[in-house]
Amino acid sequence: MVDSLKKPEFQEIRPGVKAPAKDTILTPRFYTTDFDEMAAMDISINEDELRAILEEFRADYNRHHFVRDESFEQSWEHIDGETRRLFVEFLERSCTAEFSGFLLYKELGRRLKDKSPLLAECFTLMSRDEARHAGFLNKAMSDFNLQLDLGFLTKSKKYTFFKPKFIFYATYLSEKIGYWRYITIYRHLESHPENEVYPIFRFFENWCQDENRHGDFFSALMKAQPEILDDWKAKLWCRFFLLSVFATMYLNDLQRSGFYASLGLDARQYDIHVIEKTNETAGRVFPVILNVDHPEFFQRMDWAAAAHAKLAEIAASNQPKPLQLLRKLPHLANIGWQMVRLYLLKPIDVTTTRGQVH
Questions:
Q1: Residue 9 DSSP class
Q2: What is the 8-class DSSP label of residue 147?
Q3: Long-range contacts of 331-339 (CB under 8 A, 24+ apart)
Q4: Residue 277's closest CA among 352, 202, 155, 176?
Q5: Cα dihedral across residues 62, 63, 64, 70: positive or negative
Q6: How far apart (Å, rounded) are the C-alpha atoms in residues 141 and 185?
Q7: Is the dihedral of CA 66, 72, 73, 76 positive or negative?
Q8: What angle separates helix 164-191 from helix 267-282, to the nearest 10 degrees?
Q9: Between 230 and 58, residue with greater pLDDT
């Protein structure tokens, strides 16, 4: 059969179960934290907002949303070759990221149950949402004759330790950038239904509201701990996490521009829009945001993305590993230099103009 010759090869740990992607600095990570420090937090100064968010979680607006309908009941053999590879990779990365959130939130819900019941219930209900997202994505992978073994992932993935405040910065941005990614794709395909290559994108409008609510929870949690937002160290860390999240998405997406092209999107313009919107949103809680309008910002991002593409070319070559490493060094140095220069661009202080950021 000709189509089968066009299908990309994926490494499998057993038939139909895809081997997890190798960990790199740009792949989704699993996190753990200091649970005792989290449990000892005093949230009283913003408890009302946290309780209001908890009521939204309890309402469970999407409890009937993640149900596959007849639009999935067809063959997807026409999505083949490079497009198929990129699509499976998109589903895998998204599933892994959602499952990472599920594991962290579930463990926080379990560990905080007796010491901070309000936070424990919030985390438990967010883990419910993330489990639905991950399961829905993993089921979508099965349409392409592959799935992830999430139990295997739980045991085999390396876990990165972050102190609670760093978890707050990172997960807040992860949830908010997830919202802007999903809603942007949804609105684009709503206007251009001819580019909807697969029905999962129809679910993104309600789906992204889960991401938005989760982000609001972390925003309220940070407001309950004003010391992690108010001092000079907070400004440095907020810049660091904003740049890290934006650069990770930008370098990943430009390397996979073919996936976005299959949806009728330009990967670079899509990322610029998502970065601008996420940056604006972060201004509602972070003391500083990045100056993404600076003429150097996306120019340096492009240079870093070009260097990242060179790294991928070298990694795909058949050269010996020592030679590959030698060839990679100048490109790694280039990416590092661009990140340093981007970090040193003067940020925008929003603490005095909070009301002007929308």
A1: P
A2: B
A3: 331/307, 332/307, 334/303, 334/304, 334/307, 335/251, 335/304, 335/307, 335/308, 338/300, 338/301, 338/303, 338/304, 338/307, 339/243, 339/247, 339/304
A4: 176
A5: positive
A6: 19
A7: negative
A8: 130
A9: 58
C-beta separation of 98 from 150 below 8 A: no
Lowest mean pLDDT among 145-159, 235-249, 300-314, 336-350: 145-159
Cα–Cα distance list, 44 to 20, 49, 163, 244 (Å) = 42, 10, 21, 31
Residue 77 neighbours by CB distance under 10 Å: 14
Separation of first and last alpha carbons in the chain: 54
Fill in the amino acid letter for 87: F
**CB under 8 Å to 354, separation ≥6 — which residues?**
283, 284
Does 325 score more than 80 pLDDT? yes
Of residues 186, 189, 185, 60, the one with CA closest to residue 131: 60
Reply yes or no on whether the pLDDT at 1 is more than 70. no
Does the reported pTM lie above 0.90?
yes
pLDDT the model gives residue 173:
97
Q: Return the percentage of the chain with pLDDT > 90, whole number.
A: 78
Question: Could you give the count of Cα atoms lying within 13 Å of 94 in the half-sphere of its Cβ?
Answer: 28
Between residues 57 and 152, the one the model is more confident about: 57
Q: What whole-number distance in Å separates Cα of residue 146 and Cα of residue 16?
A: 5
CB 278 within 8 Å of CB 246? yes
| Cα separation, 28 vs 354, whole angstroms | 31
Higher-scoring residue by pLDDT: 83, 175: 175
DSSP string, 259-280: HHHHTT--HHHHHHHHHHHHHH
* Distance from C-alpha of 267 to C-alpha of 265, rounded to nearest angstrom: 6
Q: Which residues contact 67 (CB under 8 A, 6 or more apart)?
A: none
